Amino acid sequence: MAFMPDGISVPAAWNYGAVERALRQAGNRGERSIFEPAIGAVFDSPAEGYEFYNMFSWEQGFGVRYGRCRKNASGRRSRQDIVCACEVIY
């Protein structure tokens, strides 16, 4: 078991990143893709999100890149778009 800062005990599996969780569940998926995106997915960092979608795109036969980002009032990145590498920029 892992512990949250406020002392609440959570299963150690909750501490895995998105890529590791997908790989650990791969045996249960059968013929389906290992990396399947979900609406509303949240990642611990932009790098973790990029890694997950990069693996998904590799399975599907295309590439990804960082797109636009949004910053909050304090100047910190609060949103990062990860887009198809072939997306047209206007």
Description:
The structure is a single chain. With 90 residues, this protein is of the alpha+beta class. The chain has one domain (2-84). The chain is 24% helix and 22% strand. It has helices at residues 18-24, 46-60, and strands spanning 2-3, 9-10, 64-71, 77-84. A two-stranded antiparallel ribbon has the order 1-2. It is flat. The N and C termini lie far apart (48 Å). The model has no long low-confidence stretch (mean pLDDT 77).
Question: What is the first-to-last residue Cα distance?
Answer: 48 Å
Domain tally:
1
Mean pLDDT across residues: 77
- Residue runs with pLDDT of under 50 for 5 or more positions: none
